[in-house]
Amino acid sequence: MERKNAGSYQSHPEFLVSRVKEGDREAFMKLVGLYQQKIFVLTYSMVREREDALDLVQETFLRLYEKINTYRPGENFSAWLMKIARNICIDFIRKQKARRKESLDSLSPDRIDLADSGQDPARFNPGEIIQKAVSRLPAKQQAVFVLHHYQDLKYEEIAGELKISAGTVKSLHYKAVRKLRKMLARQLGGEQ
Amino acid sequence: MNKCRDYRSDWLAFLRGELEADRRQVMKEHLNRCSCCQKELRAIKNFISQTDNFHNELKETMAGIDWDKLQLTITGRAFEQKARREDPRPATGFKLGRWQPVAAGLIAGLLLGAFFTFLWMRSGRLDESGARKESGISLPAGFVQRVDLALAQRQTIDYLDRSQFLLLELVQSKTANQASSFLTQDKVQKLLTEKKYLNSQLNEIKLAKAKMLCDQIEMLFLELVQLSPQMSDAELENLREIIESRQLLLKINLVKKELQQGEA
């Protein structure tokens, strides 16, 4: 039992981070193993391209390693890492938009333009449009939505992950869905 | 309507099975009575089913990824970066980054410029000190001067030799006819032409004695050229007198000797 406790302590993010700060390669590898899939869910839900999402996962961990000394013990590591990943994704999307010479002004947070997805009804993909809308949610709402819908975490688990109450998770989830339905009212139509 | 608003924020939790049993029961009862909330629930269900499509796609995508390999790759890259940052190569003082080729080009340009400026200034100084502009070869000024002097001396001695030979023939000829047969206009003319080329060197190199003597010989040759091809005995006698009175043959010997000593 003691050994089990010791083992779980040794795979606790706080402990691993403290080891990484001392240059422990194994500890960093464990951290990557713990979070790489969660980060992938976030990056993939934002960029919708497998290879891009994988690159962004790598980029996130490289940034984490660079900034590891700025992490303060006691801070919510998972949320901190998610924030790094989200910022990297936003930079990536901005660069892509700039490459396509599209104005960032067209990214109204409350409306999703079909121009992005093509006006051709044959190419209309509701899942893709929803993902674009998800990527434009406020950070906490986005985290709750992604963790709940794509990682199948219960409210209680999300609360533990993000270090907030279950009630707050429920409220954030409701706000996220309400916002998404508002954004997508025109595109998805019907009883949205 | 007010009641519906109280339920609205819980329909998601209701659908996802995240409500406590009591609350779930209360909502169920309300749903049976309220068509407005039934409509709202259908809309949420419809929306959630759309996200489920993506969930399936995500699961499929994630199943095709080698997570162990990714874990190793990320760790490897992170520690490689760290090793590069800690590389103890001597610092250059400033980071050039992608401007490095430009900086290298500028430095090379400056070095080449400095080199050509040095060559240009050096050749300018040689010109000032008397080096030949047309030589095309950069040599020390003193060396060029010495070579010029040696060449001028050699040419003067040569000129004096041939002049002396002609004058001796003139002095030793027994008759005017004998002198005329030997002293052809061509030979004299050739020596006069040679003297013209010699003049510039004699002026520049300042061979004063040699110049004076060569001038006297030239005067004599000019007189000779004026004479008819068949000179008379009187004319021959007159020339002999000039040669002897001016001691041309003796002076030639002396100047030649002096020049030869200078060469040595």
Provide an overview of this structure.
The complex is a heterodimer of chains A (192) and B (264). Residues 1-6 and 110-124 of chain A have low confidence and may be disordered. By secondary structure, chain A is an all-alpha fold. Chain A folds into two domains: 9-97, Rna Polymerase Sigma Factor, Chain: A (Orthogonal Bundle); 125-192, Arc Repressor Mutant, subunit A, CATH 1.10.10.10. Chain A has ten helices and no strands. Chain A has helices spanning 2-10, 13-21, 25-47, 50-67, 77-99, 126-134, 139-149, 155-162, 166-183, 185-188. Helix content of chain B is 80%, strand content 0%. Chain B contains twelve helices and no strands.
Helix proportion range of chain B: over 70%
How many separate helices of chain A? 10
Shape of chain B from CA axes?
A: rod-shaped
What would CATH call the homologous superfamily of the largest domain in chain A? RNA polymerase sigma factor, region 2, helix turn helix motif
Instruction: Give helix and strand order of chain B, one letter per element, not per position.
Output: HHHHHHHHHHHH
Range of helix content of chain A: 55-70%
Q: Biggest interface: chains and residue counts?
A: A-B, 41 and 38 residues
Rg of chain A, nearest Å:
18 Å
**Could you tell me the mean pLDDT of chain A?**
79
Structural class of chain B: mainly alpha
Level-2 CATH architecture of the largest domain in chain A: Orthogonal Bundle
Outline type of chain A: globular
User: What's the main sheet of chain A like?
Assistant: none
Count of DSSP E strands of chain A?
A: 0
Total E-strand runs of chain B: 0
Strand content of chain A: under 5%
Low-confidence stretches of chain B: none
Q: Helices and strands of chain A, in N-to-C order?
A: HHHHHHHHHH
Rg of chain B, Cα atoms, Å: 57 Å
Secondary-structure-derived class of chain A: mainly alpha
User: Which segments of chain A are poorly predicted (pLDDT under 50) over 5 or more consecutive residues?
Assistant: 1-6, 110-124
